Amino acid sequence: MMKSVGFIGWRGMVGSVLLNRMREENDFLKINPHFFSTSQLGQDGPIINNIVFKNLKDAYNIDLLKEMDIIITCQGSVYTDTIYSKLRKSNWKGYWIDAASTLRMKNDSIIVLDPINLKVIKKALNSGIKTFVGSNCTVSLMLMALGGLFSSKLVEWISVSTYQAASGAGAKHVIELLKQMGALYNAVSKDLSNNVCSILDIIKKVTKKIQDDNFPLQYFSVPLAGSLIPWIDIDMKTGQSREEWKGQFETNKILDSKNQIIIDETCVRISSIRCHSQSILVKLNKNISLKNIEEIIINHNKWVDFVPNNIEETIFKLTPSAVTGTLTIPVGRLRKSNIGDKYFSVFTVGDQLLWGAAEPLRRMLKLLINI
Ligand code: HSE
């Protein structure tokens, strides 16, 4: 019998990407979907295979949720905080798949990224684990890029600088970034179309606009367009932001590492829309050739697209604008570091809403519906 799958938070940014991927892969033919809402019960749900799913169910109704074999939520951590333990306490034994970070580090949950940790997932399923959570997006994208090096147990430590898209902060932030860009353009649009104004005057006007009281700052608090923000998420009071803290702890949980691999990050918000980029310095535990490193990276999974370290291919293939909306994980700028033989640097980009959020959840759902 087809499993009943409850969808919560399917209208948001990650949820919509999830539904689109499921439509593309015909996943809805293999499940009995039920759509819930936290605010619009009774209203129409999404259109799937030309059918409107009418009468949205109440996402706070434990009795209705209990009827599901699997629940998949992209609603966020407040919802998970409110509902998850109530539902488990009601003796619900179904599978919970979650995009939010709330349950990630719990002992009875697994962080899912099956091209990297399918064995860990299968072992967990056999031991009766029922809670599966998507990882932080920079973590998934870094692991998809360098998975071969981790599975070959070659990594001693890595140091990462991230360049993270506005979408990682949420839909309202993407809109605010675009408003900021528009405000900057509007401040000088006339000057850009005549050749009279000097570039220094144009920069002066734009700078004045960024500092203007009316500049849109409701969500980011500070300008992102024409600037960057070198802090993401809350302060861990250790010198790290929580985004930086997640790098080491989520990676080691995904890999089920016996010994912690050290991962140190500096996470920075930039003005790309939905693709995160990462510049990574790796220390290997032995000296291997660049050719070998390249082969290990390429052979790990079919989504890696190795970009040779030259100007032309780098600027056309290794950028957020080249990758956006695709599952491709370009990996390039591979070179040995001046620091020493066991050190190399590499650059990678990935769509934050696909491999960084929705795709690992979709693939986990697929594993569960085939059980
Ligand atoms: N926390 C990430 C970010 C996104 O702010 O970019 C989700 O993993």
UniProtKB/TrEMBL annotation:
**E.C. numbers:** 1.2.1.11
Q: What is this protein called?
A: Aspartate-semialdehyde dehydrogenase
Under NCBIfam families, the record lists:
asd_gamma, PRK06598.1
**Which source organism does the UniProt entry give?**
Buchnera aphidicola
Pathway field:
Amino-acid biosynthesis; L-lysine biosynthesis via DAP pathway; (S)-tetrahydrodipicolinate from L-aspartate: step 2/4; Amino-acid biosynthesis; L-methionine biosynthesis via de novo pathway; L-homoserine from L-aspartate: step 2/3; Amino-acid biosynthesis; L-threonine biosynthesis; L-threonine from L-aspartate: step 2/5
Quaternary form?
Homodimer.
In which residues is phosphate bound? Answer: R104, K246
- One annotated GO biological process: diaminopimelate biosynthetic process
Name the catalysed reactions. L-aspartate 4-semialdehyde + phosphate + NADP(+) = 4-phospho-L-aspartate + NADPH + H(+)
Please indicate which superkingdom the organism of origin belongs to.
Bacteria
Q: List, from the UniProt record, the residues annotated as the active site of this protein.
A: C137, H276
Q: Where is the signal peptide?
A: none
